[in-house]
Design a protein that fits this description.
Rossmann fold, single chain, globular, seven-stranded parallel β-sheet, 48% helix, 2 domains, 280 residues, 13% strand, alpha/beta
Length: 280
């Protein structure tokens, strides 16, 4: 929890577009200093221009979140140039919708796990010691998804949701481990946000070879054009940091499928109780 964000420094991964850019704009309005990170250098420059136009002090730092060496190098540079770091937003992520689990290639498993899971792990490893170094209030926000709480059968989100479930679990563990310290934790779980996430191939690391977004995934863009504006999500994140929220949801309507999933879990326990009673 950081009640007043003004004057604090934030690191945002995936800041070149989408939710990352929205968070950067919201943080700029809060008077924060920003380290903007993304694998796409040109996209970073666009966000840098937007936040500096709002009066924010900011630097653009190219980073491949799936590469621990790249993240460590960026952390060293940011610390050297901006000093104390107070907020880390592990936001970079890619989509992998519309592909059955059994059809995902080894290269694409490496990609989606590398960015969505290892990216968060790498961010925590590189930046948590820096958040703890100054001893003042600090906060980590890990971007999961509503897909980290339920799997949408209609969109075949299995590979994506698997990684986002991992982000939720990692964040829950991190919150437990940091309880009572100066570092707070939040996990962001948005639903439909008007971003370009379904065009994730543009952010594929060169070492994994060329990629192409599948037609089913690209068709889903129409479903999010009327979604939340990324900067609205950014304001939601800022509020969560100020108030110390852990689960940070956006779309209240998504409570229904999450409750349906939990009802199935409860039914599973009820059946287990019946079986145990009949089979002592």
């Amino acid at each position: 929890m950081i009640p007043n964000l003004r004057g604090h420094t934030a690191v945002i991964t995936g800041a070149g577009s989408g939710i990352g850019q929205g968070v950067a704009l919201a943080f700029a309005a809060e008077g924060m200093t920003l380290a903007l990170c993304d694998i796409r250098a040109e996209a970073l420059e666009e966000t840098l221009a937007l936040v500096t136009a709002r009066g924010a002090q900011a630097i653009a730092v190219p980073m491949d979140v799936s590469d621990p060496a790249s993240v460590a190098q960026a952390a060293a540079r940011i610390s050297a140039e901006l000093g104390d770091i107070h907020v880390l937003c592990n936001n970079a992520g890619i989509a992998m919708h519309g592909v059955p689990v059994a059809e995902v290639t080894e290269e694409n498993w490496d990609w989606v796990i590398g960015v969505n899971v290892r990216g968060v792990i790498n961010g925590v490893h590189a930046f948590l010691p820096l958040l703890q170094l100054h001893g003042g209030p600090a906060h980590i926000v890990n971007t999961a998804s509503i897909g980290g709480f339920q799997v949408n059968a209609g969109f075949r989100t299995g590979p994506y949701s698997m990684t986002k479930y991992a982000v939720v679990a990692l964040s829950e563990a991190l919150e437990q481990e940091l309880a009572g310290t100066s570092v707070g934790v939040s996990v962001l779980a948005p639903a439909a946000v008007a971003t370009g996430i379904f065009r994730s191939a543009r952010a594929r690391p060169e070492r994994l070879g060329p990629g192409q977004d599948n037609p089913t995934q690209l068709a889903l863009e129409e479903l999010i054009t009327d979604g939340w504006a990324p900067e609205r999500v950014g304001r939601r994140v800022a509020h969560a940091i100020r108030t110390g929220e852990f689960y940070v949801f956006t779309h209240v309507a998504m409570q229904i499928p999450v409750e349906q999933r939990h009802a199935r879990i409860q039914q599973g326990f009820a059946r287990a109780a019946l079986w145990s009673a009949a089979n002592p």
